[in-house]
Amino acid sequence: MAKTPELDTAYRATTYRVFMPDGFLDLRIDRASPHLADWLAAGDFAAFALMTACNPGSRPATPADNARRQAELECDLLDAGYRPFGAEHLADAGDWPVEPGCFVPGLSADDALALGADYGQNAVVCGGADGVPRLLWIEEQDDV
Questions:
Q1: Residue 18: other Cβ atoms inside 10 A
Q2: What is the pLDDT of residues 86-141, one digit of tens each?
Q3: Partner residues linked to 137 by β-bridges
Q4: What is the value of pTM for the model shown?
Q5: Residues near 23 by Cβ (< 8 Å), separated by ≥ 6?
Q6: Whether the Cβ atoms of residue 49 and residue 107 lie closer than 8 Å to each other
């Protein structure tokens, strides 16, 4: 599914909750998080990404399929040497199921986009040392 105004609005009307070692952190697209910026600086991370493997193309999948896909994503990240933290994507309107996700310190935007495309996602959330999450759309993706 391609970028649409409705999907852009929905993705921006979502809280991206990250389960950090010292508690959870709620992130919003284009809103700076001083706590995240401090945490990234302390760990010497210049980039981060938030992503999920669930509901590819923003089409609901079964809970079993979502769990399998998410486990595969987490294994791919670990195999690549990343240390992902758990995350949840929470739609403000409550009209979409809570999606499990991964917060990945050190994952570049280019690598996150490529991995997101591999898992049939429309977009990923990425940022830099400033702690500002940005919504990045995946222009081309293979059918899932």
A1: 23
A2: 999 999 988 888 999 999 999 999 999 999 999 999 999 999 999 999 999 997 54
A3: 123
A4: 0.92
A5: none
A6: yes
